[in-house]
Amino acid sequence: MKVLAFARSGAGADRLRRARFETRSSLPVSAVCVVASGVRETLASLLGAPVVLRFFDPAIPLPQAWPIITGDAALYRVRGSVADAALVLRRRDADALVCALFGESQEARAQRELSPLEREVLHRTAQALAANLAAVCGQRETNAVEPLAGVDGYVTFFELQVEEPVALRIGVALSADPKPEPRGSLEIGALSNVEVSAVASLDAGVIEAGAVARLAAGSSLPVRLRNLERCSLRGAGVRLARGICGVRGGRYAFVAGAAEDRV
Amino acid sequence: MFLDAPLGAALDRIAERAADVRRAFVPGAVPEHDDVATPAASSAFTLDPLSVCAPEGTYFLSTGARGETAYSRDGAFAIREGRLVDGSGRPVLGTLPSGERGELRADAVDAALGRIADARIRPDGTLAYMRTTTDPRTGERQARQIVVGRLLVACFPAGTRLQARDGDAGAAPAGVVADVGSPGEGRFARVVPMQRERSRVDLDQSLARLKEAYVAFEAMQAAQTARGRLGKTAMDLLK
Questions:
Q1: Chain B contact set for A29 (CB, 8 A)
Q2: What is the DSSP string of A227-250?
Q3: Which residue in A56, A157, A168 has the most chain B C-beta atoms within 10 A of its own C-beta, making it the best mutation to test that interface?
Q4: What is the DSSP string of A46-88?
Q5: Which one-letter DSSP state was computed for residue A41?
């Protein structure tokens, strides 16, 4: 969904944060909160320690951003009834998670590849984490996750940032962004007190352009009687009704004949 | 017309003077000829929080196209694709949070998703930006400062003249080792944020010297032409 927003940083000599249209995800933050809370509880039980976790707002990455997001990451597909989700664990995050699960320090582990046993543990951890994704991808028939080669066709992305007991990030990509529901933020009754200027105008009929050009002081312009019955009422420049103008009780009056059919 | 050595040298002088004129438009640039240098360094205020002024006698470090280290006093930096780059797009070098030295770059995913906000350089050379996260329990949003690293500055032994390149950066002369450190540490003063150093080249003086170089070249050209004619006349008389 495109929304009007301001750039995050000012550009140019004036450092003005310029207005622009941004594509934003319609994924409710409340749904991400549910996922984040579930992941926190799951990690706390796996790691045997309290987990402090926060999350980044969901985003719609540009096509050129996806390779950066998934560059060296391990991907696990989670099939849901509404959309597919993919757990994105970057290399360093996967290393940090495995180290925390095995009680190993990251410095000692250095840069070596994950062993088959560590990969299996990582897979099962992803499976446990995937059980919390129902809020964003719908109900699932099984808890299985599948290794994924790429995230082509995925649209939405958000990240969970684990701060304690280990610093790492867990990304979640979704194959579909929820469609925004049109909702009026203002009820029509809220506009009832807005003041608009009303103008009743007489339609004096049709006149040739040449006759207008010849008008001068003392000229007389014939107006047909039946034209005087063609009066229109305008509010804020919009014609509201047609009718007849006259005087009633010493005041100008407008008798509405036909209301304009406007929404 | 054959180009003899004096004429070639005159053309070289024109090229050098023209290069100095171009440097007059490059922030922080130092002239190749001291006779067109301004009396003292000066800087101008800018709203850009990524613009900094280097301490006197020091240079910022960046990586050139061939991987060589380039030294420049132009502190008008920007963040492109997550990397801190100088005015010519060269990656700026600094000290990373791990303690290693390398290119200063923000987290790649943060950069790709446009999460880098309010990036700025502090007087101690620290490059930081703000990143917003949400607590799932309370829904509270919190912006936290993320430190990318710290700028490096270098200075050279007194009297060292950098080998000029395209005008905005230079290379260390052969055999000269730069003293590299962080602003505000040891012998290095702090950088001045939101300032942009002006060129150290006096534009009027550099234009005057360029004109003189052209005049000298034309005079030598006329002298060579006259000498050629004289030689031809002498040869004709001998014939």
A1: 134, 139
A2: GGG-EEEEETTEEEEEEEEEEETT
A3: A56
A4: HHTS--EEEEPPPB---GGGHHHHHTT-EEEEE--SS--EEEE
A5: H
Residue of A nearest to B46 (CA): A13
Other beta carbons within 10 Å of B84: 24
Is the pLDDT score of B137 beyond 80?
Answer: yes
Q: Is B99 exposed, middle or buried (0-12, 13-18, 19+ CB in 10 A)?
A: exposed
Chain A partners within 8 Å of B139 (Cβ): 29, 33
In this predicted model, what pLDDT tens digit does every residue of A176-216 receive, in sequence order? 888 877 666 777 888 888 888 888 887 777 788 888 898 88
ipTM of the assembly? 0.71
How many C-beta atoms surround the C-beta of residue A47 within 10 A? 18
Size of interface A-B (CB pairs under 8 A): 69
Q: What is the dihedral of CA B16, B18, B22, B24, to 10 degrees?
A: 80
What is the pTM (predicted TM-score) of this model? Answer: 0.73
Specify the DSSP class assigned to residue B189. P
DSSP A188: G
pLDDT tens per residue across span A37-61: 999 999 999 999 999 999 999 999 9
Helix or strand holding residue B21 (H, E): helix B5-23
Q: How far apart are the first and last CA of chain B?
A: 23
| CA B10 from centre of chain | 27
B69 and B93 in contact (C-beta within 8 Å)?
Answer: yes
For residue B141, the number of C-alpha atoms closer than 13 Å in the C-beta half-sphere is: 7
Average pLDDT across chain B, whole number:
88
